[in-house]
């Protein structure tokens, strides 16, 4: 059994926009760590992080062309676990929210806890949070499904077209193992084919990129579903499909609710 007072682990989110999204609590995890590992989308963000801590180690060099993505992520976990087992306070810093569409932070926390270490995840502002603000929609209005785009190709999933559909990692759709490198229009054409089972080809598709630097503005492109395959897309964009059909009332449930209301009123009157 390890001594839980020795090494400890935190995985924190830096938020999306450099300098403005970091929470005081995430910052304190960074500052109090013995060693900081960084998996950030932007080298400028890494430089900024280095101003908060003298020992920031980038996890980016583990990526390589042709190398399976999972191998890279397992190496990240191994790097953080090695310092944790050496008794250090380890902080993993990830862009956005460390627990959203990110495998390694969940895995390293699970492994650390299984070995008896204290481990904590500190949330951050994710691309999801930014898109509600920038695109101006509330996921509670019609409901909202989120999928990793590739999962729609690999698995049988049911899309509810009465709500919003948010697709992550569309730029690398169909990339089953190799690196984080972008796949081309032929891969996205398969995604469009899958989506056309549920949506008309002329349905609106929003290609969204939130600002990562304070001097930038969000990029919002509105195209049609049929144009999605040919649209230029990087690994940093998220795709949103607004609802295609109106909400259908559930008459049976509404009747039962009304019956309950009436019974309640009768009981109060008696
Ligand atoms: C591996 S996930 C990481 C998400 C991150 N943990 C978060 O909380 O936003 C990468 C995906 O996040 C989305 N993403 C990353 N940067 C983005 C940005 N600047 N604007 C919009 N979406 C972004 C894209 O869907 C991208 O494929």
TrEMBL record:
Keyword Cell wall biogenesis/degradation: no
Molecular function via GO: methyltransferase activity
Domain Tetrapyrrole methylase: 9-228
UniProt key word Cytoplasm: no
CDD domains: OphMA_like (cd19916)
Biological processes, Gene Ontology terms: methylation
Pfam families cross-referenced by the UniProt entry: TP_methylase (PF00590)
Keyword terms, alphabetized: Methyltransferase, Transferase
Annotated protein name in UniProt: SAM-dependent methyltransferase
